[in-house]
Design a protein that fits this description.
alpha/beta; 6-stranded mixed sheet; 5 helices; 6 strands; globular
Length: 166
């Protein structure tokens, strides 16, 4: 199974209009532009996802919608509460494995969660981290179900590289 982790694009700061709390933060103009360009690169990597899950936080939801629109799957984006900040691989794996997706899966969420999930997917021991900057894409492959220590890192593509692929 191919699992793609897309970190949300640049968001406004807490205290911006309509963003009094972290949970309310939405993409900045820069973030919208960054996600739109990166999504064009994503489309060259994977043309279709059997499942698209996103954190319900606005900045992640917006990033997911931009990515899904680029691959013609805007209607397939699903909010998934377990992808809100604090997400862990075991819970995310359980949710995805329960659905038995037939193809690639895209999840959109936050750091440090994604960095920790990648580390957990690559080793059961934990402790290490791989830096995932805003609007960057990680591609993990699992032979069967998603599980700690069973993943292989296929690619880690920074936002700027995704944009250049467009």
């Amino acid at each position: 199974m191919d699992l793609y982790l897309l970190r949300h694009a640049t968001a406004v700061n807490v205290g911006a209009p309509n963003a009094p709390r972290d949970a309310d933060r939405y993409l900045s103009e820069e973030g919208i532009e960054e996600a739109t360009k990166a999504a064009q690169g994503l489309r060259k990597i994977e043309k279709h996802f059997s499942l698209i899950l996103t954190s319900p936080y606005p900045r992640a939801r917006q990033t997911a919608e931009i990515a899904a629109r680029a691959v013609g799957q805007l209607e397939d984006v699903e909010d998934c509460g377990i992808l809100a900040p604090g997400a862990v691989l075991d819970e995310v794996a359980r949710e995805i494995n329960r659905r038995h997706p037939k193809g690639a899966v895209l999840i959109v969420g936050h750091n440090p969660d994604f960095e920790e999930m990648i580390a957990d997917a690559l080793t059961c021991e934990g402790g290490g981290r791989i830096n995932v900057s805003k609007c960057s894409l990680a591609h993990l492959r699992f032979e069967r179900a998603i599980a700690a220590g069973k993943g292989k890192l296929r690619a880690l593509i920074p936002c700027q590289c995704l944009q250049k692929m467009a």
